[in-house]
Amino acid sequence: MRKLPRDISRQSGQAVGIAGQSALHDSAWLHVRGQARYIDDLPEPEGLLHAAVGHSEQAHARITNLDLSAVRAYPGVVAVITVADVPGHTDIGPVFPGDPVLASELVEHIGQPIFAVAATSHSAARKAARLAKVEYETLPAILNTREALDKSFFVRPSHTQQRGDPDQALAQAPHRLQGEINVGGQEHFYLESQAALAEPQEDGGMFVHTSSQHPSEVQKLVAEVLGLPIHSVQTEVRRMGGGFGGKETQAAALGCVAALLANVTGKPVKYRLSRPDDMVQTGKRHDFLNTYDIGFDDQGLIQGAEIMVAGRCGFSPDLSNAIVERAMFHSDNGYYLEQARVTGHCCKTHTVSNTAFRGFGGPQGMMVIEQAVDDIARHLQLDPLDVRKRNLYRPGRDTTHYGQVIEQHILPELVAQLEASSDYRTRRDEITAFNQQSPILKRGLALTPVKFGISFTAKHLNQAGALVLIYTDGSLHVNHGGTEMGQGLYIKIAQVVAAAFQVDVDKVKVSATRTDKVPNTSPTAASSGSDLNGMAALDACEKIKAGLVAFAAEHYGCKPEQVRFENNQVVAGEARLDWAEFVQKAYMNRVSLSSSGFYATPKIHYDFATGQGHPFLYYANGAACSEVVLDTLTGEYRVLRTDILHDVGQSLNPAIDIGQIEGGFVQGMGWLTTEELVYSDEGRLMTTGPATYKIPAVSDTPPDLRVSLLPASPNREATVFRSKAVGEPPLMLGIAVWSALRDAVASLNDYRYSPPLDTPATPERMLAAVNAARRWASVEQEAS
Fold this sequence. Notes:
It contains 20 helices and 29 strands. By secondary structure, it is of the alpha+beta class. An eight-stranded mixed β-sheet has the order 3-5-1-12-9-10-11-20, sandwiched between helices. Strands 7-15-14-13-8 form a five-stranded mixed β-sheet, sandwiched between helices. Strands 16-27-28-29 form a four-stranded mixed β-sheet, sandwiched between helices. A hairpin with a 2-residue loop joins strand 21 and strand 22. It is globular and about 90 Å long.
């Protein structure tokens, strides 16, 4: 049973743990005790086999010969399959085709699965998979974004959004700057690697335990590769050990391979990836090449902009079309671009297909405008914060380059509050004085905003279902289409249901997400888990309540408006009953105590042909102020302090939301500073584990980290209890660290020069930026 703090909410006449209050994560005690079950912790079914795949060692090649005799002969091997053994569909592309479940003749990245093995042990399967003899005809490989751009080599057509006449605005602007930035990718590095367990059923169907953010997609694709109707496959997700987008589409491949092997052998099959295999075989955050051409006046007010964002998509479309599109949507961040053109390219490379990652292209898009704003400030010798504030969306300057009107102006006041609470102006003066006196150590400071659109940009995904059951003892059971990956979605939905009936949250149980309870679910992604599933659960509750109110009014002889639910009781006129007692009476009087619920996000639309529309229901906002210190001799640095003010509307659970903000900021900081994906000239990933790929550690967290929620800021849209999404937006708060690092280097030239700084801003890149600043100073001195 969940243990909840008994706080002042009991004395104030409220049920404990309902929406709006802080409550423990539903699996918190299981996590800390090591009792929370993930795929690899489930009891092993009798006769369980283990899967592995043999994969390509070439980035782009044609297979001329495949000899699997040694694989089949290895002790413990029960079955070996190739694409020829797939009874149904062979392409498992989530939106567009291009992702073969197993390669046939053509391979297009190192790590692409060619065949699959089922063996009596995990070790035997992996060792056997290495024994294949594969002969290749090597083909030319394109491995980077710039080469793909030069050759117009794309996985999907390019797209343009335009507002006004940017060419004329740029030509007439008093000042004009151009720049570019290479924004690095990022490995998801979830604690639980990709995993699935497939069990054949007595009716010829398949049951799949999957570590997936999208169980309905796994269900559909498993059914398709097996040649079955969807109803013959069920999938279940109790929890994931992290997802971050990496398990939105790419978990399906493991479910399909495990199911194919289970179908061939008639035995349950588990397929889990080791960390190196996971990093080689699955996609990352897209790295981007971004450019800008921007015109502005003497005050730094942007008058025209030409922006390009180009994502390295890998060998297949996956979700890249939507990811590059979201980068385009967010290339303004929080700034009004009256005359602007934004172009997006989905570049094909012979590398693993990149995929969703927290922020879904938005962070990469924001980087280009944040670089431009910093460059404008240095060019005019203004404080970057002043340039940012002047360009923020505000009434009268509130239409985006894709035609959506900003209806709730949060950022100007939010930024002003953080500027004051972080003592930005005082610290700016202190840091400038410090840098003038310190020849080696330089400090930097930056305050950057975040405006992030909330909704799936694919309209049909903005829907959710839920199932709410009330039992005769007053306990409640909830099932919904969202998945739990550690972010606290289950506890939030439990709190929503508890609030609907005004009962303690420990009376509510949320069970594993299953496709045979709530069908056709959307992925838990796009920061929409609470918005969609919370509203669906609330809809189910309201349907049940309507029946309960009608019963109470009739049974106790009062008007329906005199029936209310409060503090674990039901009041009907003069009658006051304990919740469980009332539920028992309703049951005895044959009142329905269960209902399904449904929600579809209103208002959203987008016309791809015109590049205009209203793709987001609302925007989430926040800002971060970060201070760093840089050693200009080595390029090493530390983050000293970060202040964050973030808007989550009327928070469903302040403790969970603050945790999400802290985690999102640190993950964003890691993306921009320490997490570097390194590939060989042949396209082979060289950073395949924690020894070579550095996620931020506890020691990298700012020793002074101050996180606050913006008070009194309910969502003006009718979201669940007027809350706002909190999953992805905080990641982009990490941009403040990158901007502060540039600020530290700019101090070498009295803030007159903005050095190029690709990400991640490793010490090596920081040292290169320092050297570039010194070279600039030398050129300036010679010219004068």
